[in-house]
Structures are given as structure tokens and as C-alpha cells.
Amino acid sequence: MEPDPVLYMKLAPDYALPLMNWLRDDPELGDLLTLDAKFRQSGAIAEATVQVLSIALGSGGIGVVLARSLSGWLANQRSDVKLTISDANGHKVELDARRVRDTPQLLDMVARMLSEPEPDEPHRGN
Predict the structure, then answer these.
(1) Is the residue at 1 inside a domain?
(2) Is 53 domain-assigned?
(3) In a domain, 46, yes or no
(4) Whole domain around residue 105: which residue ranges?
(5) Each residue's pLDDT tens digit in the chain (126 positions)?
(6) How many domains does the chain have?
(7) Which InterPro entries match (predicted)?
(8) Closest CA to 111 of 70, 69, 63, 71
(9) Considering the entire predicted model, what is its pTM?
(10) What is the rounded distance in angstroms from the CA atom of residue 101 to the CA atom of residue 77?
């Protein structure tokens, strides 16, 4: 039985494989991620979901590293990209990027999403 994905990234099918290759080629992430893609066609609408099946959480700050890599990928796109990132806990970040150059908000939101405790874990206050 496959594990439930840790993170979902929905985007146009043409971007799914390039995004997966980008993440796999990232020297800080390549060995830490297990990725899969699911493609769906409903009438004229096609959608791809890149699933992060596992993230080796042994190294601290993996959320920041993943968000930084995603930001770099988005900055290298020459056309508009719509990306929705969600996790198993229901957190969601939607980005409608038009020729992105820098995405600090994406970095922050994805890093926070990946570092939040599970719903049954107590939240720690500062």
C-alpha cells in the first residue's frame, strides 16, 4: 500500500514533468523527495497533480528548501503558471503567476504549511 501524499501540487499537465525534473535535480532535495504525477482530463480541462509522496524530514528546514526550489522553478517559467499547493491537513496555497521573478510569499507560505504540526498534535506557543 502506498503512503498518503505529503503534498499535492496541481498545475497544467505541460508543467508537471518539468517541475518534477526540476525538484529531482535540486541538489538539496533530489534524494529527499519521492514524487509521482497523476493526470486527469475532464472535457476540455486537463489537470496534473504532482504528489510529493514522502519527504525525508531528517534534515531541518525542508519546507524552506522545497519552497525555495519551487520559487526558482517559477522564476524560470516564460509563461503564466497557475499552481495550487495543498497538504493532507487541508492547508492550501494558490498562486496565479504571471512571469514570476521573485516569490517570497510563496516561500513563506509553503515553509509554514510544511512545518505546522498535524491536527492531532498540540500547537506550541512562543
Answers:
(1) no
(2) yes
(3) yes
(4) 7-115
(5) 555 667 888 988 998 889 989 989 999 887 878 888 889 988 888 888 888 877 665 445 677 788 888 888 887 887 788 888 888 788 888 877 765 555 666 667 677 766 665 555 443 344
(6) 1
(7) EACC1
(8) 63
(9) 0.72
(10) 9
